[in-house]
Amino acid sequence: MHKQASCLYGLTGLLAILGGMPSLQAAELSEDDFLQDLPVVLSATRLVQSRRDAPVATTVIDREMIDASGFTEIVDLLRYVPGFVVNYDSGHVQAASYHMLNNNLSRRMQVLVDGRSVYIPSLLGVQWTSLGISIEDIERIEVIRGPNAASYGSNSLLGVISIITRHASQDRGVMMKINAGENNLAESFLRLGSGNENLDMKVTAVYRQNDGFVDRYDSDKIRKLNARADYQASLNDTLAFYATVNNTKVQEDNVFSRDIPNHPAKTLSRSFQVDWTHSFSANEDLKFQYYRQSYEKQNRYQYADTPLFIDQSRRSERDDFEFQHTLSPLDNLNLVWGAGLRTDRVISNYYLGQTPAQTNRSYRLFSSLAWDITTSTLLNAGVMLEDYQITTGTELSPMLSLNHNLSNTDTIRVSASTAIRAPGLIEEYTDVSIAGNTIAYDASKLTPERILAYEVGYLGRFPRYRASLDLKLYREYINNLISLAAADAAGNLPYHFANQDNVKTAGLEATFSFKPNNKLRLEFSYAYARIQSTDVRNTTQYANSSPDDSFSLQIIQRFSHDYQSSLNVFYHSIMKQLATEDMRSDNIRINLRLGKTFILAGNKTELAFTVQNLLNEFEYTRLKNVAERRSYLSLKLEFR
């Protein structure tokens, strides 16, 4: 009976959206409007290109989709990307990956925020709650679905997530927003922005708390502060400054071992970035970027029923300098080239067996070009040359793509690319001991993980129906995957990191967009994936780490009198649970959002109600992690 009622609620929400649809002739877009509406991609090659010219499949999540999602966590937005899996290790440790998900950190994805890599060396991945920005700061997210080391180097093994925040000039005035709902969810946002014709500045403060999952000790309290300034120094020079501080207090448990008690932990992450761009002409510019970021985690607890205290605290820093030169030496040739220098430092007595920092310096040289061979055929080529202090030799990552326009609306793409992921400092120098017992040790020199990927794509636009279709067929060969290996087949201690796994993946991905008028929008994505693993220890570790089938659906409907609604549906078939050998059943998740925009005392105001997991289908994300139906209310005020 309860299930039938839940289904009825879901159908009612769907009918509320579909039943209110105006006729397709209302507020129609012209064919010219539709043809010009194809998103520009900024991240695929470091060159400004339309999606039809990009060398790899690209998904763009824009501000309208973000607002309509009803999500409060940035990582959840990746559910709209075909082939992506999003999971929660706990209420504050989130995981996202493309094609396979076998650990709780995105260590094989390059994640950028305004061009800054947010990879944390001491974690071997990305901490999504420590980005320093909130979902309200984002203008768009570009997801490069495939290896892209030719543009962004190591860690771009499976793809690139490029988060682009809003320009300071877009957020002048005051914005206040609160979210409050079940599970003790409480969020507050305050943004102050000001500017003139040459300088724009904004500061955003965020507070967030929630109680995590049922029957878990995993709540969090997060305080964020970020600032951005955009300065037009001269007709040809622009400067952009970014700074973030992210302070988090969390509860941590360990569902695998009773020897580790429930205990609190704290993290502090900070970043500073400056970009300077000098334009020589409309087709040539020079850009310099420097950033520094740090991450510190305090994590100390008493081990089992002993007087022994374990201190798993760690600290890491990254300094990165890069320049790039973009130019058009010929009318039919666009080119970008550049170089970069990076230094990573990690301090952790627990993980590295020493107090002094371990350091890894790396150098990179890159170039990409887009050459119009004919009026209908485009060649994209790129290469990245990298040298890492902790690995031997120089690594080369090339990319080649041919895009051919069959017509003004149909494009086919064939591409091949390679990429690497260099070993991290923790992997290369791990040395963990407890009370004189070795838990993990540095066994041998590691080599980079490697991927060779082939892709055939089709991008079609159908102006008559105001629709577009993006298809991708792919095959990937991934070698030398690094994972923990036990001392023997029985899984006994000590452990060590080793290159021991190889994986083959193949599949199909599709995205379909439909926007018949200015009031209705539909976004649909589907992915089919098959993974074969030759892992010498367990061939199912990677083989089942991605669902065979998954899809997402977003329907955005705007009504008269400034009412809006959105329906968001996500599905995945059976897959292996994160960090376990247990299988996770297929799952469907439905989110519904209803909103109303109005003027209050002369200021724009929005009131919205969101229900997540509408059907109350339990989503077993890892052992005891159960996602139940949750709802929250949102109030947003803007003062200009």
TrEMBL record:
Main localization of the protein described in the UniProt heading: membrane
Compartment(s): Cell outer membrane
Keyword Transport: yes
Keyword Ribonucleoprotein attributed: no
Domain (TonB-dependent receptor-like beta-barrel): residue spans on this chain: 226-614
Keywords, ordered alphabetically: Cell outer membrane, Membrane, TonB box, Transmembrane, Transport
Span of domain TonB-dependent receptor plug: 51-160
Cleaved signal peptide residues: none
GO biological process: siderophore transmembrane transport
Membrane topology note: Multi-pass membrane protein
A GO CC annotation given for this chain: cell outer membrane
PANTHER family in the cross-refs: BLL4766 PROTEIN, TONB-DEPENDENT OUTER MEMBRANE RECEPTOR
Name the UniProt record assigns to this protein: TonB-dependent receptor
Organism: hydrothermal vent metagenome
Lineage start: unclassified sequences, metagenomes, ecological metagenomes
